[in-house]
Amino acid sequence: MGTTDNDIQLIDHIRQNLGRSILGKPEAIERLLIALLAGGHVLLEDVPGTGKTQLVKALARACGGVFRRIQCNPDLLPTDITGVSIYHPKEETFVFRPGPIMANILLADEINRATTKTQSALLEAMEERHVTVDGVSHPLPVPFILFATQNPVEFEGTYLLPEAQLDRFMMKLSIGYPDDETERRMVLGSHSDQAWMRVEQVAEIEDIVRLQERVRTVHADDAIGDYLVRIIHGTRTHPGVQIGASPRASISLMTAARASALLDGRDYVIPDDIKHLAVPVLAHRMLLHTEARMNGLTPEEVVREVVERTTVPVRLER
């Protein structure tokens, strides 16, 4: 059974709201929605001023739920994120005071400015959806999605994200500069840095949970699974690649493809769902050989090359 009219209407309303927050970037909005419905974390890497933070704020405002923001810096401690147990003298016991991570949508601004120790505090939450403080496990709200931003051009005072953490991000996205016409509209119109505040809430967080459950029911034919696995295998055997896409990447790509199908009103995955998402889902997880990097090869180019040479399945069961 395909998506209901109410589902399609709800998704369209969220799209329209996000379009009011950031102009001229429908592809970025689409991929952000895919990650939301797939329940996957997103790393937004771009130069300052392109609207990364504003877009996430707009998404949280449109979808309801609990939103928290962390401004990362070298002074940030792991307990500043996860929370801390505080001794209560009257009750003679320790009481857990939750941190900002107890949210449905968490924005970690400039995540690469936090120390590696603080970054590692997010690993458990990203994968297992709970945090452990003083030996006690605390479940995170459902859903829990992390949107992290980082600046690719500033290196002073920044810390590289570890490979294990990068692999836990479903997608790595770049919004990019607006085109000339869009920027002209921004300059001459009323669009401002606070445009996200004009976004209306059009959904409840329970609606997002329901749509995430619908994603799991989207059909993927065996031929689609074989096509995806051949792409993943191609990233591992490419001569310029030292470490290819992981099994977690395979699962992420299939889940994202299912979410893409749902956004298009389909209850089945087609090869284009996988082709269009291969770069944002796979490239940031790969490590190239030094010689390949020195020759100018990028992970994005590798993924595109692998997808181009992988035979697309012609006949699918629906």
How would you explain this protein's 3D organization?
Residues 38-179 form the AAA+ ATPase domain. This is YeaC2. InterPro entries: AAA+_ATPase, ATPase_AAA-3, CbbQ/NirQ/NorQ/GpvN, ChlI/MoxR_AAA_lid, P-loop_NTPase. It comes from Thermobacillus xylanilyticus. The protein has helices at residues 5-21, 26-38, 52-63, 78-82, 116-128, 163-166, 180-188, 205-217, 222-237, 247-263, 271-282, 290-294, 299-309; strands at residues 41-45, 67-71, 83-88, 93-98, 105-109, 130-133, 136-139, 145-150, 169-173, 241-243, 287-288. With 318 residues, the chain is α/β, with parallel strands linked by helices. It has two domains: 1-205, Rossmann fold (3-Layer(aba) Sandwich); 218-318, Magnesium chelatase subunit I, C-Terminal domain (Helicase, Ruva Protein, domain 3, Orthogonal Bundle), CATH 1.10.8. It has a five-stranded parallel β-sheet. Strands 3-4 form a two-stranded antiparallel ribbon. α10 crosses α11 and α11 (271-282) packs antiparallel against α13. It is globular, with a radius of gyration of 20 Å. It starts with a helix and ends in a 9-residue tail after the last helix. The mean pLDDT is 87.
Estimate percent helicity: 40-55%
Q: Low-confidence stretches at least 5 residues in length (pLDDT < 50)?
A: none
Number of strands: 11
Task: State the name of the first-level CATH class of the largest domain.
Answer: Alpha Beta
Helix and strand run: HHEHEHEEEHEEEHEHHHEHHEHH
The first-to-last residue Cα distance is 11 Å
Q: Which fold does the CATH topology of the largest domain refer to? A: Rossmann fold
Looking at CATH, the homologous superfamily of the largest domain is P-loop containing nucleotide triphosphate hydrolases
Mean pLDDT: 87
Our Rg estimate from Cα atoms comes to: 20 Å
Query: Hey, roughly how much beta strand do the residues contain?
Result: 15-25%
How many structurally independent domains? 2
Total helices: the number is 13
Gross geometry: globular
Q: How is the largest sheet built, in terms of strand order?
A: 2-5-8-1-9
